[in-house]
Amino acid sequence: MAKKNTEYGNDSIKTLKGADRVRKRPAVIFGSDGLEGCEHSFFEILSNSIDEAREGHGDVINVTAKRDHSIEVEDFGRGVPLGWNEKEQRYNWDLVYCELYAGGKYNNDDGEAYEYSLGLNGLGACATQYSSEFMHVVSYTKGQKNSISFEKGSPICDLITEEYKGRRTGTVTIWKPDIEVFTDINIPFEYFDETIHMQAVANAGLTINLKFENADGSFTETSYCYKEGITDYIKELIGEGIERASAAESEESEESDETSSDADEREHVMALSTPFYNKAERQGKDRADQPEYKLKMEAVFCFSNSINSIKYFHNSSFLEHGGSPDKAARSAFVKAFDKYLKNNGKYTKNESSIKFSDVEDSLILVTNSHSTRTSYENQTKKAITNTFIAEAMTEFFLHSIEVFIAEKPKEAERVAKQILVNKRSRENAETARVNIKKKLSSNLDITNRVEKFVSCRSKDPQKRELYIVEGDSALGSVKLARDAEYQAVIPVRGKTLNCLKCGYDKIFKNDIIMDLLKVIGCGIEIRNKGKTDLAQFDLSALKWSKIVLCTDADEDGYQIRTLILTMLYRLLPTLIREGKVFIAETPLYEITWKEGIEFAYNEKEKAEILSRIGKNKYTIQRSKGLGENDPEMMAKTTMNPATRRLIRICPTDEAATEIMFNTLLGDDAPARKKYIANHGSEYIDLADV
What pTM was computed for the model? Predict the structure, then answer.
């Protein structure tokens, strides 16, 4: 226990005053004292400009982010009042920027300056000023230009008021987050891009221009505007898939009359339905003894068999954690489609009902709601908790889905079928998870041995390395070249399954894959389409520090390597994300001359070696397959950590990686044909023809 060396009495209680209320405890307001909190301080200033635009004052906002980490936000609203306030007997600049819980957004129900505002608590502008190294505010009102400056939470001048003959109004705020307050103030372009993008989606017709200064002093300039708001955004998500869905809807033949080729083509329709938009207004209260408030709702949804996305906005804030709208969507979509499936006899006898995850797998939903009273989970505004909003949006969703089903019966039937496919896939995956866990949970022993697996002596998973090699001949060479203390070897007998085109049942009947999974030892990750893992994957149970793919440097070797990578991508993607998977780079050429033998791993290295050799005599030989290499060569080029070359597999862009895997190895034949047509000529030199 701690030593009792201090007294705790009446004089021990202290209060933080002025800027210290934020500077010493920034996480209370911003949710973090790190980069995330710094990012939220920017959002607080941006949200004030957005509130002005939503009230009809200005339709353009300019954001500039400098490489010195200073930020400028300019709007063309009414201009923040900075002058004398008779009621409060203080200057408004003092109230807005130096007083927590002071602002003009407390009487939303009465329809004063702001009705549906993102800012509510009178904290953001003041807290951001308090947490800044400096802040300059310039406000243009009719006939006046007012400005005030601060440093480290305190004003450094009096209010400067000048006559202004220009026509513009609005506010310009320039500030720099203080590194003494936040542990990191280097807000990346990606945050500005995503945040501004989402605000443009939630505020139809608003243009937000971003200028981001790069490290070399150049600027990346981007403009964001969605004239139709969430409707334009969902069309952007689906792209040309909407046209496919429209064409499918206009087909006159019933689905039961489709030929098998038509059915196969339907498999590749990205959108199962066209976007369905609806809006409504309600008035209600969260509790019987509380006053009523207004609620406006709009939502657009469609369904897809290849992507899913759900986003909730409330008073322009992107609700990352959902809250009331998410609760409403989960209830309404399950209830509506469960009713449809039952009424149309789509369930088999004694089949269990659908869950929201089955709908969510194919659902693209964007909602945008506004209320005059909002209960945010906290100041970062990532979830709302209003009970009335949850009830009203549940009713709104139910009505919208009923109208969708009535107006678009063919689309509704396609959607319902896909939801059932999702449900049955989930249930099959859960069954497979249980079965595969039984197969993989037993330790390797004399009764459960993997054929031709050569283990190592070390039991330390931080040192052990697993080499996956091509065939028995390579096994012999690698076995002799390895360090038996910590390097183990398992051969792959021929080409494995393409795991992106096979179901789990077929995958788990494949002996090669099952042997690899047993040896790797950390279970598997069975995933629903686009959703969370269902299998009991345990990274801590991984038996190896490195999993090294070691194949010949020829077309067959590359194909085997690709198929093993595909297996890991589908069944063990975390190993790739954690940097546990490597490729052993094997030499292409063996060059012998008077100084000895040198190895070239590519054409450039070959040219460099020959240049060094000059006029000396040499012999050059294309490298043999791994099985023909002598152990000394294998040890030097492939096994010895001091001289080998390993390529770590890193999914630097996971979304792009997924698209490429699915295009080249998955079921999307049209996308593959299109890619080959556009890029096939680039690979003609590598073709095995």
Answer: 0.63
